[in-house]
Amino acid sequence: MENAPENKRWYDKDPILKEALELLRLSSPNEKEHAKDFILQLQEQVAGEVIERIYEIITQYQGKGNRWYDNDPIMIKAIEILRHADPKTQRKAALKLLLALEEKSFNE
Questions:
Q1: pLDDT of residue 106
Q2: What pTM did the predictor assign?
Q3: Is the CB of residue 41 less than 8 Å from the CB of residue 30?
Q4: Cβ neighbours of residue 63 under 8 Å, at least 6 residues apart?
Q5: Distances (CA, A) of 93 to 2, 40, 59, 60
Q6: Which of 40, 81, 83, 86 has its CA 20 to 30 A from that of 73?
Q7: How far apart are CA 61 and CA 79, in angstroms?
Q8: pLDDT per residue as tens digits for the range 29-64
Q9: Tally of CA atoms within 13 A in the half-sphere of 103 that contains its CB
Q10: CA 107 to CA 68: how far, in whole Å?
């Protein structure tokens, strides 16, 4: 039996990040709205050129992609900011996101 390819998505490399994004994917629309704002706070920690690349991605995938967040331009932006953050920031954000989703509380 062949093993499935590991880490096929960018966030599969970190189990906490993977769990946070999977939980986010399964969350209610209201929880996703709060989570977007929460993740977008990372903008301050991501370089300007990354932000430009994110806008290109939004234009490319909005409403056209197969990912669970491709129909929401703000969620695309939030996820791409998270994707381009350094691993330490990704992990910290994932832990906070997991806690917030589990507690259904996005106050910081």
A1: 64
A2: 0.61
A3: no
A4: 70, 71
A5: 34, 10, 25, 25
A6: 86
A7: 13
A8: 988 888 888 888 777 767 667 777 787 888 888 788
A9: 10
A10: 25
